[in-house]
Amino acid sequence: MTGSSPAPAIAVFDLGKTNSKLLVFSAEGKITAEARTRPLWRQEDGLRVLDDAHLLDWMQAQLEAVVDSHGVSGVMVSGHGCTFALIRDGHLAAPILDYEQEPPADVAARIDALVPDFQETFSPKLPLGLNYGRHILWLQDRDPSLLESTDTILAYPQFWPWRLCGSPVSEVSYLGCHSHLWAPLADDYSSLVDTQGWRAKMPEMMRAGAAIGTWRTKTSREVTVYNGVHDSNAALYYYRSIGLSDVTLVSTGTWVIIFNSPCPLDALDPDRDMLANVTVDHQPTATIRFMGGREYEIASGGWTKPVALSAVASVIARGIVALPSFAAGGPMAGLEGGFVGPLPTDEERAAAALLYVTLMTDLSLDLIRSANDIVIDGGLVKTGLFAGLLAALRPDQVVLTSANPEGSAYGAAALAFEQVGLSPFASECRAAEPLMVEGLAAYRDRWTALAESRSGESSARTYREVRG
């Protein structure tokens, strides 16, 4: 039609801890451009912090390019968890912390006494900055005047839109992500926020995807800036938006985060790294997670190639077993990861790591009471064998894999497209064929027994008890 405006395209920055990317979505829901970078973390004043200026420069340069070349009219951010920014007079009051650092023991003892009960926040007490309210308390302990002079506390997916358009807002899916800052059943900030006097520092709450301002290119072209979203919650929103509402979502990347809405909140065991996430529409959702992508990278020795099924079969036949845990948190926290059995080849080591992540996922699915269809999204889809192995271990459930591994970016785009009346996405999931590897069930039993023997009698619930 002559004179009509072009259909809008959305630029999504999907900002992960170790990898960040830009994906441009056309109005038809197709990815038309992409770019990737790695955030830079540096040491400053005894802390590991983000080089935010470097990442902002990259984001703005990418936006300049795609606005002109792909007709981008809006920008949306999906961000990894556990990260925040303290703002004073329009500038960072302190650098953005890397969540993977533990406060000194004496500090931890002081600040951990302040956090609310699990039944209020449904945030288990976790190490490092995995509860980001804990890291805010750490900075306050280091310098009490810092929080006094801070006027705004921004979550990570809200920090970047603020950088682009200057509008500070809050968003519930990020605040409700094991932060200690949100009380899901009350649908309000937690008692920690009020006892510390932080409520006035929390900006207006707006829904993920809401238009909050404008960014201008160097040629004065205007781009709508949308309120950002927590990455795995964005993936959950994507699958719900395409009609897959009654499913267990296994969102994979640096973290494996498993959502199962039918699971009652009273089934959540904080000692197993179980928690309630909060959806973009304020609904508490039972969740369990472990650092699966990171653990695979460590346990596999940095293997980046596909793993052959023959290597998996060899690992099972030879009795090579990777045992938890290779990173902080998860349903078997506090154990030091390692291998038992014969010395593996490089590919066998990767195969054992893949089996480890599969078995941790299988355990987590039982703990979260998953009995419905399972959707696997994210980086583990690319391994090729993960979904098939999981399907073999769970014959009573349909295991679906997404045709795209970018559910968080798709969900972020779906939220932004809603604002202009578009819903361009449809389900492209397919059922995974079970990989019937000889000895797989017996291997699971051995892994379970070995893991339980290392965790001892104090384990909250054993694997066999969960399986009933």
Description:
- The chain is an alpha+beta fold and 468 residues long.
- It has two domains: 9-227, 2-Layer Sandwich (Nucleotidyltransferase, domain 5), CATH 3.30.420; 243-467, Nucleotidyltransferase, domain 5, CATH 3.30.420.
- It has helices spanning 52-70, 105-112, 118-121, 132-142, 144-149, 156-165, 172-175, 191-195, 231-241, 292-299, 309-318, 346-367, 386-393, 407-418, 440-455, 463-467; strands at residues 9-15, 20-25, 31-37, 41-44, 47-50, 72-79, 84-88, 91-92, 152-155, 182-183, 188-189, 211-216, 222-226, 229-230, 247-252, 256-259, 274-278, 284-290, 321-323, 338-340, 373-378, 399-401, 430-431.
- The strands form six sheets. Strands 1, 2, 3, 6, 12, 13 and 14 form a seven-stranded mixed sheet that branches.
Shape, principal axes of CA atoms: globular
The percent range for helix content is 25-40%
Number of strands: 23
Ranges where pLDDT stays below 50 over 5 or more residues in a row are 457-468
Major beta-sheet overview = 7 strands, mixed
User: What portion of the residues fall into strands of 2 or more residues?
Assistant: 15-25%
Structural class: alpha+beta
Instruction: Tell me the number of structural domains.
Output: 2
CATH architecture of the largest domain: 2-Layer Sandwich
Mean pLDDT: 93
Calculate Rg over CA atoms: 22 Å
What's the total helix number?
16
The CATH homologous superfamily of the largest domain corresponds to ATPase, nucleotide binding domain
CATH class of the largest domain: Alpha Beta
Do you know the CATH topology of the largest domain?
A: Nucleotidyltransferase, domain 5
Give the N-terminus to C-terminus distance in angstroms: 63 Å
